[in-house]
Write a structure and sequence with these properties.
Length: about 100
Amino acid sequence: MNFLKNLFGGGGRHEDRGIYFYVQPKMCKEILRVRVDPLNDLSQTEDGKGYWCRKVASAARCPFQAEIELYFDKNKRFKDSTVENGELVSEEAWRAGRGD
C-alpha cells in the first residue's frame, strides 16, 4: 500500500524544490512570482557547461508579458538573467505589494 501512496503522492508532505523569482512587467504595478523547478524546467546549454530556462509572466491587467531567461551553472545554481519587457525585483518588494 505504501508503494501506491508514494506513486500517487499520498505519502505525506513533499518539500518544494522550486526556485522562485519575482518579476514586474513593464507598465505594471503588480509583481509576479515565477517558479522554476530545477529538475523539470532547466535545459542544458549548447556548450554543456550549464543550464537555462525561459519563462513568460503576465498579469491580468498589464499590456506586456515579461520574458525571462535564467542561467544556471552546472550544479543548477542561479548565475544570471535577462528580462525583456520587465525587470526582476526582490522577494521583499513582492511581499510588500501583497501586504505581507
